[in-house]
Amino acid sequence: MKQILVTGSNGQLGNEIKHLAGSFANMEFIFTDLNELDISNADDLKDFFKNKHIDFLINCAAYTAVDKAESEPEKAFLINAFAPALLAECAVEYGYTLVHISTDYVFDGKSYKPYVDSDPANATSVYGKSKFEGEQAILKSKANALIIRTSWMYSIYGHNFVKTILRLAEEKQELKVVSDQAGSPTYATDLAKTILQIIESDSVTGTKIYHYSNEGICSWYDFANAIVKIAGLNCKVFPVKTSDFPTAAARPHYSVMDKSAIKRDYNLEIPWWYDSLKVCIELLKQVKD
Ligand SMILES: NC(=O)c1ccc[n+]([C@@H]2O[C@H](COP(=O)([O-])OP(=O)(O)OC[C@H]3O[C@@H](n4cnc5c(N)ncnc54)[C@H](OP(=O)(O)O)[C@@H]3O)[C@@H](O)[C@H]2O)c1
């Protein structure tokens, strides 16, 4: 039996892993969130690991409020950079493999072709910088670790773009959504499944960065249109420019990531973003009915 600890398990990705846990018979899970285990508290971590054997730690905990991070940089760096460094130190000391989640926001979005894992990072927001520092700390630690950068994540759990657009499209006749930022949505169920399959495969060695999102590319405008269309809502979506919607944190204009490495190394077939979106909206409908 593999012993798996999931931190930050009340968030989108953590909840998806909880949901899938029962399908992985050779794994035993411990789920914690801030109340049970604060990943930025070194003493708490040491107390926790002292008497437990953990094979894999999946770190779903993060400071994810991208705009708020601009005015709370200390908190963002504490959770996104300092805490992953602690988790990596503990990985070396207590012998587990760390699976850590990072973001497309480590890139500046000035590329014109999908970012590969080795492309230089150049984050333009506090959130992106803090996540990049977390990655660097893990890489330096020499822990056995997998860092998976993902983008535009949504799920039936928590707050996300899909749920926001569904709510707004039910309330309004018209919506304006930016069309000059391109990326790839990620259905958190698909990512959670991939993480558990990778752990099951017993082939994680060394420290590596991978990119994972659903297949395909769209703008937030395309994404919003697809959400409205799949849900059968009667709301017109209009394209607008990023400059029409100023936000505290700068967003990358192009944050598409190349997934060849993770697909090759783990023999993965990744669903097209539109197909996964349909699955999520169907589930949200069932939850609502
Ligand atoms: N969401 C996206 O679009 C997206 C895109 C790219 C990458 N990512 C990355 O994917 C990962 C998972 O994201 P998500 O959307 O599932 O995040 P989320 O829904 O915001 O969940 C994060 C969880 O971590 C908890 N947490 C915060 N500080 C903690 C601490 N010090 N110790 C323990 N738990 C703590 C949060 O609790 P509270 O709610 O009480 O703070 C929350 O339950 C993150 O690393 C994120 O950076 C997300």
Structural notes for this entry:
The protein is of the alpha/beta class and 289 residues long. The chain has a domain at 2-159 and 187-214 and 257-270: NAD(P)-binding Rossmann-like Domain (Rossmann fold, 3-Layer(aba) Sandwich). It is built from nine helices and twelve strands. The chain has helices at residues 12-20, 42-50, 73-94, 126-141, 161-171, 188-200, 220-231, 260-266, 273-288, and strands spanning 2-7, 27-31, 56-59, 97-103, 145-150, 153-154, 174-178, 182-183, 186-187, 207-211, 218-219, 236-240. Helix 1 packs across helix 6 (188-200) and helix 7 (220-231) crosses helix 9. It is globular, with a radius of gyration of 19 Å. It starts with a strand and ends with a helix. NADP nicotinamide-adenine-dinucleotide phosphate is lined by residues 7-8, 10-13, 33-34, 38-40, 60-62, 64, 79, 83, 101, 103, 131, 150-153, 158. NADP nicotinamide-adenine-dinucleotide phosphate binds next to helix 1, helix 3 and strand 4.
